Amino acid sequence: MINFNNVTKVYGKDSVALDHVDLGIDPGEFVFLVGASGSGKSTMVRLILKELEPSAGSITVNGVRLSGIPRRSVPRHRRSIGCVFQDFKLLPNKTAAENVAYAMEVTGQKRRAIRVKVPQILDLVGLGEQAEKYPDQLSGGEQQRVSIARAFVGQPPILIADEPTGNLDPDTSVGIMQLLHRINRIGTTVLVATHDREMVDVMRKRVVALEDGRVVRDMVKGGYANEV
Amino acid sequence: MRFNLGFFLREAAKNMRLNALMSVTAVTTTAVCVLVLGVGLLVSAHVEGILRGVGKDVAITAFFPEDVTREQIDQDRRQVEGYPEVEEVVFVSEAEALNRVKDMLSEQPEVMEGLDPDIMQASMEIRLADPEASDAVAERLRAEGFSEENLNYPQQTISQLNQVTGYVIWALRAATVLFLVASVLLISNAIRISIFARRKEIEVMKLVGASDGFVRTPFVLEGLAQGLIGATIAALVVVWGNAIFVEWASSALPFVPVSSSAVNTLLVLLVLIAVGVLIGIVGSFVSVRRFLRV
Ligand SMILES: Nc1ncnc2c1ncn2[C@@H]1O[C@H](COP(=O)(O)OP(=O)(O)O)[C@@H](O)[C@H]1O
Ligand SMILES: [Mg+2]
Which residue of A78, A124, A182, B287 has the lowest C-beta tally within 10 Å? Predict the structure, then answer.
């Protein structure tokens, strides 16, 4: 589903963020990408979204080589990947429902379809009551649920979350992780970049560890640290 | 992909409401620029109109000799009317010439008393289509047998006037173009500031998978609306001001040939609004593009 082949990413002249990374993720997997701050997690996410180009090596997503996607087709590529960020990245002038609807409007869907689907998805993430609230009227956890609803409303085959619990307290984080887990069970490939040690340890999922831009560990039912 | 005009219009309207201050700034900037531009257009139109009017008044006067016959006059007149450079020929009889002098001197009737009506000469006033042609027409008249002292044509004045007219008109046009360029920069800058404030939003839209066109369309509609509102206000003010000026000038400055026909009101209105709308569209299009590279 997602393949990194010998990918190197250098920022500027000599700031190496990823160093010859090889990684394969199969359809339907749930994968944690862990590592200290600055180890290169976000860089991998941005490469998958084709926000950045690799300095060397190649990336395939959904069987498509990213280097072969022309600029005008990048939006279509992004729509096949649901995206969740640490800072939620909600549109501040839109309500929860409008934020979710925007992701459908982007793909040119009919208003009727949008009116049916948006409340369903908000119910799914447990925000049925909060649909008409603006982001600044919602708690961090609720905002993150909205952003997950938006990422998932188009039913993309892949969902990527970059530090989804980075701004949330531990209790709220558990709820978010459970939501991601449920989305994975429906068949969505989920990649979560995080340095939330406890969360990774309790979920017992595949863990890929990065250190200074290199993959140092890849365990099927791993924990955050080495000894597990 | 379906072009969802309703969605884009709602987005644009909502953005303008939420960024009311920015919208007011863009509208005001457009209005001020279009206003100055419109005043410039009016000034050049009126100056051109006045200069043309003055040029039009320039005519050649050809006096007939004392002993001329009626037939001779009619024949000369028809002949001159046939010249391609000539617009109009007006015959002024001796009696008419006398009346004109009387009119001119009506304040001092005592001067008239000693005046011998016989010294008046019949003449024809030849109005020219092109003031430049007075030399050529004078030449033809001389060939017809009019002697130099019976011809009155201010050739010097005409060519000087035409030169000045040309300079003034070109200076005004150059100023208009310069100002137009300045307006484009000013207005697109106002739009850019308003879009810069929303660059994070644009980034998010692109991350969610919006195409450039999808992100751009509401902004362009917004620019269009702002340009339209600002330019319409300014254009109406310009046209209204022009009507007032023409009316005032015809009573306060009767000697200056200010004429309402110098300005095509509808054309000015349309041009000014079109300029405002165009700048709004182009300005927002260009400004958003800078933030679409995510
Ligand atoms: N835009 C950038 N320009 C230059 N260096 C960057 C940029 N983004 C990230 N880096 C560097 O690349 C390395 C990896 O960063 P990142 O992928 O953000 O790590 P993580 O998400 O794991 O914290 C860091 O050393 C960081 O300083
Ligand atoms: Mg990061």
Answer: A182
